[in-house]
């Protein structure tokens, strides 16, 4: 069936699938998904990729939320927002100290700066003033905490390293308190918070989040078109193909039975033509007298045939009698045979 699908359509499906998978892998890598550095044995238990990823993410959160909270303590217009900024700045400093300590114990290399997305948030918050600054600061910091909390919870539930497990518990306590600080201001817009995770199954509404679902949709659509095209060609080929049974040796000997009989589709009427009446035998005509035609158009019987001329009509025809065998002969050259013999030589359509 695949051979009946156009080559261009098959190529488009393959390219769309490859692009979708590549984009999903790149998006997962760009969002900081766990890497593939393998496992490492430590005195506190095995250290896996997810454990390293948690330590790195907490470090990057401290690198941008600490300075931003210090800024909010000075620039926020509301007293409650300034107080929240002060608490966040203090606690992020404490958490960052613990992060660096555990990274040194486990040999995890930490990043030296925030990500490009986090730097964009810092620039957006710094560009606002007054109440806009307060709302933007609270919303962006709350959104960042919502992204790191699922990572902390997953590592807390699945890690095999005792030191990492304790660090996850401590980090979750910090993040939960920060949620309470930010939500106490009443400036959090919960409907604007993203509900997505990294990779193919993300549910974000940004352009980068919609890229992979769009590619997957295109690939599925092309695959459906290719399947429909193949099934359609297959059904059409099945309708056009006529399979005859293979003739047996007995049938090969009889050409008349080589093919199955076909049922009559429509009867075509034969052309209408005159044919002889074959309902009875045809008698030989041996009693018709011989006659000649005169210059006036009348028939004259041969001298050797005994006949009597009864009368001549006004139209020039002669009524001849020959024992009842001939009734009349017209001057136009026509003659009529006896009724008994005419009936036996009648013509019908």
TrEMBL record:
Transmembrane regions: 210-231
Coiled coil: none
Compositionally biased intervals (Low complexity): 326-335
Keyword Transport: no
Record field: compositional bias (Basic and acidic residues): 309-325
Basic residues: bias regions: 336-349
Domain DUF4142: 50-182
Pfam family, one: DUF4142
Protein name according to UniProt: DUF4142 domain-containing protein
């Amino acid at each position: 069936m695949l051979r009946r699908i156009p080559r261009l359509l098959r190529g488009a499906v393959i390219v769309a699938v490859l692009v979708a998978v590549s984009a999903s892998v790149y998006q997962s890598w760009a969002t900081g998904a766990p890497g593939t550095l393998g496992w490492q044995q430590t005195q506190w238990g095995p250290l896996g990729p997810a454990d390293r990823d948690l330590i790195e993410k907490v470090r990057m959160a401290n690198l941008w939320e600490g300075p931003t909270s210090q800024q909010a303590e000075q620039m926020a217009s509301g007293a409650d927002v300034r107080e929240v900024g002060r608490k966040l700045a203090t606690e992020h400093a404490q958490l960052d100290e613990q992060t660096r300590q555990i990274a040194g114990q486990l040999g995890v290399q930490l990043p030296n700066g925030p990500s490009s997305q986090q730097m964009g948030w810092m620039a957006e918050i710094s560009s606002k003033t007054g109440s806009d600054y307060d709302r933007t600061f609270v919303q962006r910091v709350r959104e960042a905490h919502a992204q790191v909390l699922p990572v902390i919870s997953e590592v807390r539930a699945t890690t095999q390293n005792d030191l990492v497990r304790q660090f996850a518990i401590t980090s979750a306590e910090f993040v939960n308190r920060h949620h309470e600080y930010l939500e106490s201001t009443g400036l959090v817009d919960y409907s604007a918070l993203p509900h997505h995770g990294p990779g193919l199954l993300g549910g974000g509404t940004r352009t980068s989040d919609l890229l992979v679902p769009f590619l997957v949709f295109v690939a599925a659509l092309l695959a459906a078109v290719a399947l429909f095209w193949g099934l359609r060609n297959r059904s059409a080929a099945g309708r056009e193909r006529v399979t005859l049974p293979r003739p047996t040796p007995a049938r090969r000997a009889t050409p008349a039975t080589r093919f199955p009989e076909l049922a009559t589709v429509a009867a075509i009427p034969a052309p209408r033509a005159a044919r002889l009446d074959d309902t009875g035998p045809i008698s030989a005509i041996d009693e018709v007298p011989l006659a000649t035609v005169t210059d006036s158009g009348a028939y004259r019987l041969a001298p050797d045939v005994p006949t009597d001329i009864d009368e001549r009509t006004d139209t020039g025809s002669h009524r001849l009698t020959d024992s009842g065998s001939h009734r009349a002969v017209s001057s136009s050259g026509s003659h009529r045979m006896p009724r008994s013999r005419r009936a036996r030589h009648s013509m019908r359509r």
